[in-house]
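Think of the structure tokens as a kind of shorthand, similar to the way a musician reads notation: each symbol stands for something richer, in this case the local conformation of the backbone. In the example below we present two proteins back to back. Begin with the first one, reading the sequence and then the tokens, and try to describe in your own words what changes along the chain.
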Amino acid sequence: MSDTLAKYKVTADVKSGIDARFEPDHLPDHYRPERATEDSSGVDLRADIERPTVIDPGESTLIPTGLHLELPSHLEAQVRPRSGLAYKSGITVLNSPGTIDSDYRGDIGVILINHSGDAYPVNVAERIAQLVIAPVVKTHFRYENSLSDTERGEGGFGHTGQD
């Protein structure tokens, strides 16, 4: 894990979108959250580890990224799997999506799980997940004695059948 911290302050407004400000020029490239393409929803998160870490089949581990954020209270960050890593290697984010609250200032860690039958080495600075910034709707809950009726009602998992 690196001695330096990558700290970003994220700002947002409806017209100009979200702006993540980056100050230090001396940090390694893997600290710089970048989109793979201009229209990518998320930025890549990389493993901030000193040496490769092996995840055995069926096991999970917490991988640090070295990234710290400051988000406005109306935003959250979501840690999501990389689809290629999941499809090709069976590696995904255990608590997907992982939620990063706006008041959290620590390292963004990624809990990876190995669903494959083979051990998987996570390499230094490997792209392990993606980070998506999303709006948060602040809600208030009010107790009610009853709820309105709907066609579905309380029909739960699988109640519509298989087609």
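Once you have a description of the first chain, move to the second and do the same.
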Amino acid sequence: HVADGFDFILSNGLSEQSAAFTVKMRDSLFSISPITKIQVGINNQVVSFDSIIISWIHLRSQTPERSEIVACSGYERTGALTVIDDSVHLNVLASFDLKGAATGIWSAFVPAGSSTFDPASSPMYLIVSMESRTIVRRSENNELKAADNDSFALDGEFLNTVRLGLSNFS
């Protein structure tokens, strides 16, 4: 029975009890599905989707300084990188048309020649892998623009990305 709540009949094999629960809408997210990838950040730590329920309880009980859920969501014209932080509300960082579903998403930056990372002088990229192509977007003035002249070879069938640093290869 579903109206203002749920009615359950609980049984342990010997006796039955009835219990009623009232369900209230606390908050909602409008049109961010389908979600293709999701990560939870807690105090600069990333938690995988497998432990999202534990993380969400942790977020609510301890209220860290900054906690957020980052999702790659949508399809075709509704595709977006979504950040839900500190409470459930929508913050779309960037949006652009996708002709198909994304199979992977990565972010990368190019250090500006110093040992410290300066977002103002370091180009940052969003790389979206799809079944038939790869899209590379460059951050510029808080917008994601096409990275046409940044020496990415996108004419082939795939794009290889490599991180080199501190003699570690991945």
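Compare your description with these statements about the second chain. Residues 43-65 have pLDDT under 50 and may be disordered.
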